[in-house]
Design the sequence.
């Protein structure tokens, strides 16, 4: 699997590529399968339909890795917070976390109630071509905590940050509970057949440097070192979004650092490129325009070259209205331009 080789900085015939949110509404095939499933959560919980949408981008784009189709929010759901996906509005929790007693009453052992995810992983791995890797994933404790505290996506993270500064013990307890669940959840995905795991810290940029290291990166590192100790052959990828200013504080036992589009690749290479393989970081909106996309690819490759140490990806997820032809062209372009 060239994706796995690349995660360990081994030579590969070209720079492997996959796209965050590569399964999704920009594909008509996804919309059809989603309609068959009913709601979005029904799709996540239906093993055969989740398998189908995971495999669609492999067929259509010919990327080097599939990413499990699920959502980061199934973990808080199984911890006892009822979750809805409202049309056009995104995720919504009816109950939220604001007190220590809310944290204490969360269900422990949620990772034991996520068989629909582990079954999807096994089903996908069984159907995936042998040379393509399957990436399992979770949210980071901090990113999940923001949804559990705010109840939905947020622009300011006001409640989460008020808790951080006024009641840090409550936030810390929540982050600790999540960290335990996520270690075992990712381990469950590895046991079911995931070849690599990525932790998404999508709302990393909500925090100033010191708070980021203490309330988010610390827990990401703890999960990564737990997994690396037990499963050294499984690459661990960490993706904190929007922390270009804190790269010199990044350390820990993991394999691949996901570079978001707001971080100059040159800076990531200078700061982290010797220690970690770098993944990224094309600004997804460049896919609206073929010339802009090509220039973006050339800029990234002029920094990262053709040598081992780079996995191509977007710097955040595919958007629902990006043209699929450009996603197909991107994958081909990266393979052609990096062939050794
Ligand atoms: O069909 C639909 O309309 C639902 C849109 C959708 C999709 C396609 C949601 C709701 N989740 C997903 C799938 C998903 N989510 C994947 C699948 C695999 C793939 O990449 O192809 C993954 C990895 C995620 C992870 C996820 N969910 C993250 C982290 C990654 C990121 O993009 O930052 C986050 C923050 C979520 C929460 C979430 N779920 C869905 C939405 C619209 C959101 C974001 C809401 C917000 O902006 O706050």
Sequence:
């Amino acid at each position: 699997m060239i994706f796995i080789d690349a995660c360990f900085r081994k030579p590969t015939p070209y720079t492997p590529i996959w796209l965050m949110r590569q399964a999704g509404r920009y594909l008509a095939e996804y919309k059809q399968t989603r309609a068959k499933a009913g709601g979005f959560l029904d799709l996540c919980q239906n093993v055969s339909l989740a398998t189908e949408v995971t495999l669609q981008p492999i067929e259509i784009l010919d990327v080097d890795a599939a990413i499990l189709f699920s959502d980061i929010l199934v973990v808080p759901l199984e911890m006892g917070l009822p979750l809805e996906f409202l049309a056009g509005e995104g995720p919504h929790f009816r109950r939220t976390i604001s007190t220590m007693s809310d944290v204490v009453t969360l269900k422990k052992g949620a990772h034991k109630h996520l068989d629909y995810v582990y079954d999807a992983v096994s089903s996908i791995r069984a159907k995936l071509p042998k040379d393509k890797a399957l990436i399992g994933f979770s949210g980071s404790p901090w990113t999940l905590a923001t949804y559990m505290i705010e109840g939905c996506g947020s622009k300011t993270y006001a409640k989460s940050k008020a808790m951080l500064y006024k009641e840090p013990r409550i936030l810390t307890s929540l982050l600790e509970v999540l960290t335990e669940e996520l270690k075992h959840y990712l381990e469950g995905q590895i046991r079911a057949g995931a070849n690599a795991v990525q932790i998404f810290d999508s709302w990393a940029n909500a925090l100033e440097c010191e708070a980021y290291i203490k309330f988010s990166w610390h827990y990401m590192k703890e999960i990564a070192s737990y997994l690396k100790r037990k499963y050294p052959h499984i690459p661990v990828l960490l993706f904190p979004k929007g922390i270009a200013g804190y790269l010199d504080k990044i350390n820990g036992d993991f394999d691949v650092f996901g570079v978001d589009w707001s971080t100059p690749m040159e800076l990531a290479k200078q700061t982290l490129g010797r220690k970690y393989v770098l993944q990224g970081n094309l600004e997804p909106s460049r896919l609206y325009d073929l010339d802009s996309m090509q220039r973006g690819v050339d800029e990234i490759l002029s920094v990262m070259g053709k040598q081992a140490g780079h996995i191509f990806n977007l710097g955040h997820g595919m958007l629902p209205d990006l043209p699929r032809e450009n996603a197909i062209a991107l994958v081909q372009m990266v393979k052609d331009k990096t062939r050794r």
